[in-house]
Amino acid sequence: MAESQIRIQLSTRYPDISLRENPGPIVVNTSLRRYALSTLVNTLLESEKPVPFEFLINGTFLRTSLDEYLTANGISSETTLAVEYVRAIIPPLYLASFEHDDWVCSVDVLSETSPAASGTGNAAFKPGQERIISGCYDGVLRVWNMSSEIIAIASTSREGGPISALKSVKFLSPTQIATCGMDRVIRMWDYTEDAENLTASLTPRLELYGHRNVIASVAVHQPSSRILSASWDHTVGIWSSKASDAPPAPGELLPSHRGSKRHKSEPSINPQRGPLAILRSHTAAVTDTIFTPNDHTVAYSVSQDHTLKTWDIPTSTCVDTRSTTAVLNATVSMPALNLVAVGGTARNVTLIDPRDSATSVSAMTLRGHKGWVWSLASDPDSAYGLVSGSADGTCRVWDVRSSTTDKSGKVGTSVYSIERESAKGETLRREGGDGVQVFGVCWDQKVGIVSASEDKRVQINRGQGIFGGNPV
Amino acid sequence: MATESTSKKRKAVTRDSSESEEVVLSNGGGDLGSALIDGFQVHYGDEIDGDSSDLLEDESDVEDEHGYGEELDSDEVPSDGEHNVQDLVKEDEVSRDTSPEEELNEEESAANYQITKDANGNLRYVYSEIDPVYDSDDSDAPATTNTIGNIPLSFYDSYPHIGYDINGKKIARPAKGEALDALLDSIEIPKGWTGLTDPATGKPLELSQQELEVLKRIQMNEVPDDGYDPYPDMVEYFTSKTETMPLSAVPEPKRRFVPSKHEAKRVMKIVRAIREGRILPYKPPPEEEEDDLDIKRYDIWANEAPRPDHPMNIPAPKLPPPGYEESYHPPPEYLPDKDEKKAWEEADEEDKDKDFLPTNHDALRKVPGYTRFIKEKFERCLDLYLAPRVRRSKLNIDPESLLPKLPSPEDLRPFPTMCATKFLGHAGRVRSLAIDPTGNWLASGGDDGTVRVWELGSGHQVWSVRLEKTEAVNVVRWRPGTDAIILSAAAGEDVYLMSPQIANLTPEVAAKSREVADAGWGYAANDVKSKTRKEAVTQWVRPGSRLEGEGVLVRFGLRKTVKVISWHRRGEYFATVSPQGQTSAVAIHTLSKHLTQLPFRKLKGPAQSVQFHPSKPIFFVATQRMIRSYDLSKQELLKIIQPGARWISSFDVHPGGDNLVVSSYDKRLLWHDLELSVRPYKTLRYHKKAIRAVKFHQGGLPLFADASDDGSLQIFHGKVVEDMMENASIVPLKVLRGHQIKKELGVLDLDWHPREPWCVSAGADGTCRLWT
To answer: How far is CA B713 from the centre of its chain?
Structure first.
């Protein structure tokens, strides 16, 4: 059988893996698949260690042989095919699960590449001592090391008092943790590890009062020691993590000790502070808020009133409002593309261009989830990657470069879908992610994709070869 | 003179008569024998003597015509011709004279003549007629022949006779049978009877046996002649039998069974001639004559330029090339099936989308003639003749399109389509549930006697209290308003007000809630009057320290199991229904006074549900079959609504206040427009089992939903237009399935999210579900 050949023009957007001199169109056999092309590029790059590459042709990843791709898309083999190669996102493999006592709401990761550690330099963080913190519906904050051992534990609820779930936990710095939850309080914790890094202590440092309902999410910016909070009382709060900066707490929101006999004996020893500003513009519960990665004076918040709002923090004003069609639950910023990804009850992830110049609300829609999207995290390696955790019990990894256009605009599909390990053994198909809803997700370069779920576990998935052996 | 003349006359007559007889014979019947003549003469001679008086009488007659007689006398021996003429004249005279006295003929034998008197008084001899008896032996002549000629017999209708025979005798009309005779004739029909009258004789026409047989043969399509054999046996001129001893023993010659070379030669000669064209096997068709140049022809489409569609412009008929359908052997997918064929045949000629039906023939030779050929040509001629200049534009209206169109459910988004969250935790059925006014929390109560509060999105239980150990919690409802958080629940006969520990219960809100719930303590304590009157229906009390620690604020008991709680929109009043309670079925409670009233001393039938009007002081009470609306301010009955259901299970008032939707245990959902009628505006039967609950969306979306025992919820679009002229549009949108049926019970209650198009349902399977 005569094998046909095709000319391809290789290109990449990354300078570190670009070919030194442009080889021009290369004639290759059409029976080649991704692996063969990846080997070819590695040979051309003369790299010592082969790097797996993915190949994007006309906005879709090559998943078949070139021949089948050409047939499927009706492309003549006499044309020159423009092929973009990118570093492959390695299929995230299951690594470990950390078991909890109740549904896990939120996770955060401390590693040398995480935002909390990178801000302070490596002085405060010892490499190799990655930590994962998890906030749970039982109101307990747990700090884990990578060997699935609990290093420190702290409960936010008072003894005997009502249990209030932790909705969001964040590392402010390697030694500071911010938590919030259904008790309407943002708590700052001091986190100190002992010399062997085997045990650690969590001491409450500061309690921030000011919200009148569940605080769904906090965002931290360590250099300016600012904290943003999204609350179901329709407001976004701006706080300082330093007790000295913050105004006193509003008295009417402090728990009254006089009325309750039970708590009379233990007055709170922690300093209580109030908000720097409360931003009121949303008309329904605010569910998530973030700082813009490049500019800590700009914040985004999403709400159940279907809107994404842009805030100017110094002036505490709402700059821009983008309205979508459904309740929004999570947001993450993609600074390289000037996009903000939001997810919610529409069961998809929408990419929104929040700039004034943008004409359409939705720049792109990522479809595939069968349940509400509860949380979003961006790819630390790539400006185009995203991961979303959904109520259907999956985390989906997206690459916004891979897209098609249909009548509703640009549409993307997920690259990988991460199932819950706890649900895998079951023969019975769960109905709509029953019991395995993913509430929180975090993507760290070192640790991988960490997700918190209704199945009372934190699950870690990591692309093989990323850890320790990542090129560049 | 008279005698002399008579004798003369007599001689003359005698001689004349004998001679004239001869002449007549020689002229008219020349083929008679002389013997016959002799015989006649003898007979004649006998008569002459007796007839002398007659002759005399005749003489006197002749005397009148004097000149004539003279002439006769002078011509004693006339020539043959003259004599003949004279004779004829005489005979004429005789016949003329005798005709009036016909009746005397019978007396011939007695006297040959009669003596009468003529007009002048003279004697007159009237001789009787002489019967020549010509026809005595003439068998060929018809017995009587009417000599009147070819005239209708009806001319003689006024006479007693019907004509004259050859002798000038009157043919008497045959006696008509009397009625009895006719009857007898009709009874005994003789053979050959025709019922006709022979026009010639006036007698009934009867056919002879011979004639009948001829007719029969003609009828049988046979040759009328008797005994004629159209197919006679073959006459064997040459024998087909091989003779045992033939005349010649010579064997058959070869040429008898070998094709003739001579004939072949001749045929070949013709063939060659045909091939060379010397012989033409057929007549060449005549050359087409060139068209007559006188007839002018116009091609109106010769230089046609494309023009926009206009009635006055008829574009050239450009027929599309024939497709597979037109083939005599089309592919099977083009063949119409039975229904299509029938539809095509039944369709009007005008309505047929194509004027032929694709038909399959195995071979081209099996294709029949084109049946429509003539018709088509005819229509073409009609077209040309009538010269239509305007195309008939057919008004093609599909009757379906005239019906008001229900909008597609796709256009009516958003509405709940799938289960987003399940709320697991209740042991036993979940009887009731409600979403709090902020839309973040879900309260539910069930058979396990607990009231639970859940985080709506995630489905995590945040609060729970066990009200009763044995009784089920039948209903939970939030107090409207966000200033205070108060949840009301009914377990058994007791109603509880509680303030669940949820995240928006800040110290501030908690204090406010407590204040709202506790406001009535002082009032109840001070109101000595009601206490003394013993009319207090119930006593509002603290629920006990255990429940107080859980957040329950107030408890009071009613006489029977409370099934329904309905809050007034301002959160000041709420009504409860205990269907078993006769007079205390419906109770209205005032929160700020801790006061319970029983407004209806008597209700017709067991109360099922109650609702406050969303904006007016109107109170709806549903009994088993009717819904009554009462004006609370005037304390009077406003309207009785008759849904026609056998057993109302629940109803809800549209937020606008003018519409009502009623669910019933007999599987029906009834939409009432209160402005329109007390009867339902629309009846919806979509469920297979009893409908338990129905709710309108209260947050501005035109949605309502019902919950049924068949384990499904149905979402409807129910848009109420402000315009009075337009009726509400109701579109079924979605069936939500997922709840399992336990002991014949499916979904027991449902509620809508205050803002979003989400609804929650309480199932008998112990789960609640959020549908988004």
So the answer is: 45
Least CB–CB distance from B418: residue in A164, A183, A432: A432
Are the CB atoms for A298 and A233 separated by under 8 Å? no
**Are A232 and B503 an interchain contact pair (Cβ–Cβ within 8 Å)?**
yes
Q: Find, in chain A, the residue whose alpha carbon is nearest to that of B504.
A: A213
Record: contact A285-B440, CB cut-off 8 A:
yes
Q: Would you call B508 and A372 a contact, using CB atoms and an 8 Å cutoff?
A: no
Neighbours of B692 (CB within 10 A): 23
Contacts of B453 (CB under 8 A, 6+ apart): B441, B442, B443, B444, B461, B462, B463, B464, B487, B500, B502
pLDDT at B11 over 70: no
- Chain B: nearest CA to A181, how far in angstroms? 9
Contact at CB, A164 and B503, closer than 8 angstroms? yes
Closest CA to A122 of A134, A133, A110: A110
Under a CB-based contact definition with an 8 Å cutoff, are residues B706 and B648 in contact? Answer: no
* SS3 labels along B251-318: CCCHHHCCCCHHHHHHHHHHHHHHHHCCCCCCCCCCCCCCCCCCCCCCCCCCCCCCCCCCCCCCCCCC
Please tell me whether residue A82 adopts helix, strand or coil conformation: strand
How confident is the prediction for chain B on average, in pLDDT? Answer: 78
What are the backbone dihedrals phi and psi of residue B138, each rounded to the nearest 5 degrees, phi first? -95, 100
For residue B380, count CB atoms less than 10 angstroms from its CB and return exposed for 0-12, middle for 13-18, buried for 19 or more: exposed
Q: Which residues of A touch B459 (CB under 8 A)?
A: 437, 454
The interface predicted TM-score (ipTM) is: 0.86
User: B500-541, pLDDT tens digit by residue?
Assistant: 888 878 888 888 888 888 888 877 666 555 544 445 678 888
Spatial separation of the C-alpha atoms in residues A217 and A230, rounded to whole Å: 5
* Cis peptide leading into residue B414 (ω within 30°): yes
How far is CA B277 from each of CA A245, B264, B286, rounded to the nearest angstrom? Answer: 127, 19, 17
Which residue bears the tokens 């790059």?
Answer: A45
Encode pLDDT of A332-373 as tens digits. Answer: 998 888 889 999 898 889 998 888 777 777 788 998 888 899
- Nearest by CB to residue B440, choosing from A232, A254, A345, is A232
Centre a 10 Å sphere on the Cβ of residue B20 and count the other Cβ atoms it contains.
18
How large is the average pLDDT for residues A175-179?
89
Chain B residues with CB inside 8 Å of A439's CB?
458
Residues A255, B458: C-beta atoms closer than 8 Å: no
Strand partners, A463: A92
| Side chain identity at residue A73, one-letter code | N
Give the B window 743-772 contacts with A, CB below 8 Å: 755-756, 772
Inter-chain contacts counted by CB atoms under 8 A, chains A and B:
76
- Look up residue A49 and give its amino acid: K
> Best interface-test mutation with A: which of B415, B417, B438 has the largest number of A CBs within 10 A?
B438
pTM over 0.80: no
Confidence of residue B35 (pLDDT cuts 50, 70, 90): very low
Element (H, E) at B213: helix B209-219
Beta-carbon contacts of residue B14 (< 8 Å; ≥ 6 apart) = B48, B55
- Cβ neighbours of A112 (radius 10 Å): 18
Contact A254 B507 (CB under 8 A): yes
Q: Which two tokens stand for residue B154?
A: 């009806």
Q: How many residues are there in chain A?
A: 472
Min Cα distance B405 → chain A (Å) is 26
Tokens of A54: 């993915």
Site from B410, B419, B506 to mutate, A interface, most A CB atoms within 10 angstroms? B506
Give the C-alpha separation, B141 to B147, whole Å.
13
As a whole number of angstroms, the longest Cα–Cα distance in chain B is 188
